[in-house]
Each structure stands twice: as structure tokens, then as C-alpha cells.
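Below: protein 1.
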Amino acid sequence: MLADAEPLLGRVKAGDANALELLMRASRKYLRQVVEFRMPSELRRRVDESDIVQETLAETFSRIDDFVERKPMPFHIWLRRNAQERLVMSQREHFRTLKRSLNREVPLPDHSSILLVRSLSRRGPDPGDRLENSESMEIVRKAFAKLAHEDQEIVLMRQAEGLSNHEVAQILNIPPKTASKRFTRALIRLRGHTRQLGLTGTGP
């Protein structure tokens, strides 16, 4: 995850054009993953993912000099925030008639639950565990759909995107302790829904 960003940022600050190009390439790859996870299905039918990625890159690197001077947060968190802002703007542009609240909330894509289940199924230590997870995919998908938006958000970030608690706290602009409690509560609700739907065992 942009593992080489820090040294590249130092070189960018010193005026190294080659480092800037390398950072843009790494950023594009990371943004593709973020947009895949975050882009709502209804927006995906009207806008290409590549357009969101390109617009986010353009906005990000138009402000890169200010960022490398201040470094208010880790670079990948800043990139992710910029992508989220671009998704919000695109959502407003294409769905002006919808009665949406003017905040940073963007509906999660329909395939979010599938991405979550895939990430969980890959964690099985042996083929038998992976098979069990595969057979339970539909239950987990339905249970995830029952969660409130903020619960879906934090479960997806932690379980599917692999973000740390500290990173989630930075993205949501809340204390790490609050982020941890929110994630724990979301998991409890998710496990409750999976049990109601007939999934036995420890669940997600």
C-alpha cells in the first residue's frame, strides 16, 4: 500500500520530477482499488471508474506541493480522502434530483458485501475452511446488507480493505478508541445477523 511513498515524497519536495512520476503511478494503482471498493453501483452505470481515478489524481497532484510541506496525514489516507470527495462531487453532479444529505456519505456499492466475503474466505488456513466460507457467502452477504451504513463502512474498511484501526480513525476523523468501539459493535451486529440467518460457528 504505497510502501515507497515516504521516500518519494521527500524527493518530490526536493524537486525530483522522476520521483513525482513514480508517486503518480503508485497512486493510480492504489486509487483504482479504493474506487472499486467505494463507487456506488448507480454511479458506476453513468461514470467510468477510470474517470474518477484520473480526476482524483489531477486534484491531488495539483496540491502536492502544499501536502509535502505540511504532511497533515499519511499520504495514502490523503489520497483516499480525495477519492471520497471526488465520489461525493460526482454523485451530486449526476443525481441532483435525489434528496441526499449534503455530507460525505456515499452509498456503498452493491458488490461491497461480495468483496467482504471474498476477503474473509481468503483467510481460511486450509482448503476445508475456505470451502466452508464459500458455502456461507450468501448468508454473510445478506447479513452485511442488514447493517446500518456506518457499520457497513467500518467493517468493509477493516475486514476487506485491510486498514488498521488508526487508519480508520484518521479517515473518519474520530479518536482511535471510538473507531475500535464502533468496529467491535459492528462485528457483534454482523455476527448476530449471520446467526439469525442460520450461520453457525464464530462467523466473520
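Below: protein 2.
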Amino acid sequence: MRYNSDTMVDVSSYGTTTQSIVDAIGAAKSTNRHKDLFFSPGTYYCDYSLSDAVNMFGGRFLGSSRMDTFVVNNRENVSLANIINCGAVDISLKNIRLTSNYLTMQAPLHPGWPVPRKFSIVGCELLTDDNPSSTYLFNFSFDSPRGDIPAVEIIDNVGTFGQCYSAFNLRWIRGVIFSGNSFKFTGKVSHPVAISPQWAPDSISGAKSFDDNGKIDVSNNVIDASLFGAITGIFFSASRYGVISGAVVANNKLYGIDEEGIAFDGYGNDEGLCPTICTGTLSAATNDAAGRLVVTFGSMQHVLVSGIDQCLVSGRDDWHKFRFSFNRATGQDGLIARIHSFDHLTNSLILDIPIAANTVSLSGIFSVQAGFYNCDISHNEIFGSYGADPTYGVGISLWLNCCGFSVKNNLVSGMSKGINVCGGLMLSLWETIAWHNEISGNNLMGIYNTEALAVKGIYGSQSYQYGNKVHDNYLQSGDIVMQKQKDFIFHDNYSKTGVAKFTP
């Protein structure tokens, strides 16, 4: 179907079907009059000749509106904004020239509305001016009463963006494919690509984290912020709603990074975002009939905003989303287990690991952890700028609750530090970890700070970090620092001017 501002389409409103001019359907002042909107599958060409049409999808539709396999194919210099609560299914944008505005989308919030499956931006030319109307140019925030979260695909696009906070803000989505894009920034940008599930509403029953389903692949992109700089190139933020696991960040080229090229961040100074759910001791450990370890909370405490409180298993129903860590004096230090299930009546967690209960010391320090697990960062090229203050800035940062990562064959050039892998005692209370990571084959060039590669326990933690492997890395300058490590592997690293430092 091809239409312009004079084309009429069917609109169903409270059981009565009428016709309406298409450019007025989506305008916010119009859609609130209609209960149900239905678009047939097909390709729609919009010329946006009237001002109302810039908010083609701008209305908060009142009923079970849906757009199946809806494609907007627009080569004009227009703004496209606000796909909100419209029950869109399999939406794809092609050849969009986006100027002066932003695009945001949320999944339906009402029971009975159709569930989005996928949202795609493919093969587009994306342009914005230097004064966007929002700090987020593409702001995707999906939620649903059933926890059914759509996937987002942003593939093979090119763009030039002005000043903004985040070009692509991807929050609480089922999966992300962000691949083959080339973007240049002509103004200062904070986080060009930001991925986080942290804003998922507490009220959603059965909401799923990235760990439960979906694929995260951020690969083969070029992000050029060399003119005015970017604080962080590709940014993953931790969440107390769940974990991110299995993410792939590979073959990207990042230019003009001031602070962090690729960052998985546990927010070490914000208790409201602390990736450790609770920390403390146990009162009992047993084995169930299948041999799994069953642990009963003792003095486990959890973080509250501006305070702490006793943590009870009955306090939440999503324990299965997290990991259980054996931090210090536990008899199994350095072990991470998935949480199989939980029992409110006995205040217990059933761990998906078959170890004998009599090998566990109840007075040790244990934690339930959110954070990041088993992610791959490889073959990326990160070129930084020292900026006004060259004492900070790191090519690859794994900061709190990053475990099982593979960080291989990356090039970092012109940053203050090359690679940081850190865990420790957050806010003097919460045991965060950085365990079982492998850092190998990386090339660190032109690093300003003497500490070029660091794998550390920080914040004064008494606990060690376990099982990290550091090998076959090349440093043009600077030291390799291994601090507060146990059961680690270290070999065949070379620094042209620096040394390896081991600190207990």
C-alpha cells in the first residue's frame, strides 16, 4: 500500500469502523479518540507533508492496536518520533533520514495487547542536528505485564549525529543485534551505545533478564567520536533485576574515547545500583535428593537506599536469575553457582551444583550476585583521547561482578590505561567479584599510565579474586598489576618498558 496525506484507511473505534486521513491517525491529538487501530501488513510510504505527521506513531493508542510487518520507507528529510504503546509487531525502518528529533518505543502496558516480537532499524541513513530534542536519540524501553520482551536489531546503518547523551539507549529488551553500523558524532556524546535491563518495573511478574533468553551481539561497528570525544563507547550497566550473560562485543572500531572504550560497569559508588543482592553468612547447608547444595540464609543482609536490612528469601521471587558466590572462608572460595530454585518456607536457596554440604563453612562470607557472566570481548580496536585529564580513561573496563569473560586479541591505543578487571568491597559492605576471566593476546599501545593492565581486588576488600588468567599480552609501555589474586595463571606477557607486579 502506498499512500500520501489524502489516503484514507479504516479505523475501528468502539465497534464502529470509519475512515480517517492517514496523517492524522498517528498524531497524538487524534489517536486518543480511537480505541483500536489496525494496519495491514505491507510497506507504507509516508511523505509527511503535514506537520501532524511527524508524530505518525505518536499516540498512546487505547486498545489492541497492532502493526504487522510494518515498514516505513522514507527518503525525505523528516523527523520520526515516539512509537509508544502501540502494540507493534515486527516493525522495520528502512532508509530513514532522521533529523531534529528522536525515536522512542515502549511495548504495550495493558493485558490483552499484542506482544511485539522484533523491532529493526536496517540499512538506514540516520542524521540528527546539534540540538536534539532529547538526550536519547533512539530510546528503546520495553516492558510487558507478561514479561514478553521483544528483540531489537540495528544493522548496517550509517549516521552522523550531533551532541547527545546516548545515541542508542537499549533498556530491558529480549535481545540485541547491533551490527555493521558506522556512526560519526559531530558533537560531544556521553554513551553512544548503552545497554541495560535496570529500568524494568518491579511490578512485572515473571519479567525475564538477558540471562534467561535472547542474544546480545555488538559487533563490526564503527563509532567515531574523534572530533569532540565520547565518555564511553559501548556501555553495559549492571542491574539488580538480573544478570547479563553471553554478550559478544567483537570487531568494533572506537575512536575518540575519553573514559572507557568498552565498559561492563557495576557502579561502585551507588548502593541503589549495587550488583550484589546480599552478603553474609549461612545458618545451614544440606544436600537435596538430587545432590544439589541447599543453603539457608543466616545473617545475610541486603542493601537498601541509605541503609541495610536482613535479607529473607521470602522477600523476592526472582532468586533464580542470580548467582551465588563463595567469597571468603567458605570452604569453597572462588566458586560461583547458578541458583536452581528457592524455598520461602525454609529461607533457603537450592544451588545448581553438586558439592557435599559438609565441605561448606557456614561462618564464611557468601553473596548473591547480579552482574555480568561469560561474555566475549575480542578483536576490537579502541583509540582514545587523553582529554583535559589524562589520569583516567581505560580501553576495556570490567568493573565489579564480571566473571567468566574472554578478553582476547584487542588493540587499545592512546588511553590512560589499557585493561582493568576489578572486584572488591563496594561501599564497605558488599562483596563484589571479578573471577575466572581470561585476558590474552591483547596489544596495548601508547598507554599513558604506568598501570597499563590491572587485575585487582579493590576498595579494601579482604576477599581474594579467583581464577583469572593473564597471558600472551603485549604492552608497548607500562606495568601489569596482579593484586589480591588466588588460583590465577600468568605467563608469556611482555612489556617493553614495564614490569609485572604481584601484590597479596
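Residues 73-79+93-200+213-271+373-502 form one domain.
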